[in-house]
Specification:
heterodimer; A: seven-stranded mixed β-sheet; three-stranded antiparallel β-sheet; 10 strands; 0% helix; globular; B: mainly beta; four-stranded antiparallel β-sheet
């Protein structure tokens, strides 16, 4: 299985909305509802943000929204804040778990 | 708060073996599915495999690159997860992390570095 495809980097200004895409195939993202998203700040371990496509993990603000259409999953962050600057990774489980390459989000 | 701490990494020659351990705290380990994930230098996250809780059969599942070489096991009496790595290759070099969960991962350890080199 190949890694899921994410944009290497994205940027946005405080208050804006951004969407991180996670492209897969019908054998992974499109084949089930087990997509999850992780946020990782430098020097920290990844933090689960979204699981099962759209379920927010405990304590995750409603500004974070997960969705999926066909073979592509998305993480939308609305009302961007400085602390949202981090790396974001998607993953999908169908026949095993695969991860995306990660997206570096910069808050301008 | 759920915490996991890995140990056992180090330098090993190609073809050698190593066993990693992961001690869990802050949650009911025996009720948790657990996985191992690694990150090779300059590369992304790679899931290695998982083990179900005993109540769900305690069965394991592995990623293709490590199937037949790596074995995941657990000792619920010690709240400890293991990763036995045999026939190690240079491409197995990386930071190995223990994570809670089977298809999404709630708690991550800092990881332990495994270097496979002659």
């Amino acid at each position: 299985q190949s890694a899921l495809t994410q944009p290497a980097s994205l940027s946005g200004s405080p208050g804006q909305s951004i969407t991180i895409s996670c492209a897969g195939t019908s054998s992974d993202v499109g084949g089930g509802d087990f997509v999850s998203w992780y946020q990782q700040h430098p020097g920290k371990t990844p933090k689960l943000m979204i699981y099962d496509v759209s379920v927010r993990a405990s304590g995750v603000p409603h500004r974070f929204f997960g969705s999926k259409s066909g073979n592509t999953a998305s993480l939308t962050i609305s009302g961007l804040q400085a602390e949202d600057e981090a790396y974001y990774y998607c993953s999908s489980y169908t026949n095993g778990v695969i991860f995306g390459g990660g997206t570096k989000l910069t808050v301008l | 708060e759920a915490q996991v701490v890995e140990s056992g990494g180090g330098l090993v020659r190609p073809g050698g073996s190593l066993r990693l351990s992961c001690v869990a705290s802050g949650f009911s380990f025996s009720d948790a599915w657990m996985s191992w994930v690694r990150r090779a230098p300059g590369k992304g996250l790679e899931w290695l495999g998982r083990i179900k809780k005993k109540a769900d059969g305690g069965t394991t599942e592995y990623a293709a690159p490590v199937k037949g070489r790596f074995t995941i096991s657990r000792d619920d009496s010690k709240d400890t997860l293991y990763l036995q790595m045999d026939s190690l290759k240079s491409e197995d070099t990386g930071v190995y992390s223990c994570v809670t969960g089977g298809h999404y991962f709630g708690a991550w350890g800092q990881g332990t570095l495994v270097t496979v080199s002659s």
